[in-house]
Amino acid sequence: KVKAAVFASGTGSNFQALLETDNLQCEIALLVCDNPHAAVIDKASAYKIPVFAFNPKSFSSKAAFEERIVERLQKAGISWIFLAGYMRLVGPTLLEAFNNKIINIHPSLLPEFPGKDAIGQAYHSGVRETGVTIHYVDEGMDTGPIIAQESIEVLNEDTERSLKEKIQQVEHQLYPKVINQLLQQSEGLI
Ligand code: GAR
């Protein structure tokens, strides 16, 4: 199986959903986390997944910590990176080392509501429809080429919390499905 790393900063429900997908076509071989106190690290420990946690403030630049990440990824034989709530822009060091192999999931129908708190932004704007987007990562904020989207209706009775629950349920199904499709396509190219 090809090896993948998940990058996450927070809770890790998407990370957990990937780990709990029986037929995932890759091995999640590493968690990369930019917050040594994030809850996702406990999830990795529970599933015995190796962790590379770092504090960006202890490096002189983004290039400096991304070089360390690339070293660690190469040592672990990682060929794909799946961002799952990694709340940081990916820089040229990682993008060049993993060209077209970095994927992100975002809780809105991009290009609507990029950036932080996409669910809150959508809820408070009053849109009747929002959703989930999976896309290739480039240097922008939630801007790379879109791979898949699934829309979700915002009902009158929805609260911000119920909307978040619905979106996360879709995320947990859609991310493994799209990852498997990508892995199959890239195998076909070899
Ligand atoms: C997810 O909803 C993900 O789509 C979002 O962060 C959440 C992380 O939740 N990502 C972004 O907003 C990226 N711009 P989780 O830690 O429970 O997986």
From TrEMBL:
Its EC number is 2.1.2.2. Pathway: Purine metabolism; IMP biosynthesis via de novo pathway; N(2)-formyl-N(1)-(5-phospho-D-ribosyl)glycinamide from N(1)-(5-phospho-D-ribosyl)glycinamide (10-formyl THF route): step 1/1. The lineage of its organism: Bacteria, Bacillati, Bacillota, Bacilli, Bacillales. Catalyzes the transfer of a formyl group from 10-formyltetrahydrofolate to 5-phospho-ribosyl-glycinamide (GAR), producing 5-phospho-ribosyl-N-formylglycinamide (FGAR) and tetrahydrofolate. HAMAP family: PurN. It catalyses: N(1)-(5-phospho-beta-D-ribosyl)glycinamide + (6R)-10-formyltetrahydrofolate = N(2)-formyl-N(1)-(5-phospho-beta-D-ribosyl)glycinamide + (6S)-5,6,7,8-tetrahydrofolate + H(+). This is Phosphoribosylglycinamide formyltransferase. N(1)-(5-phospho-beta-D-ribosyl)glycinamide binds at residues 12-14. InterPro entries: Formyl_transf_N, Formyl_transf_N_sf, GART, GART_AS.
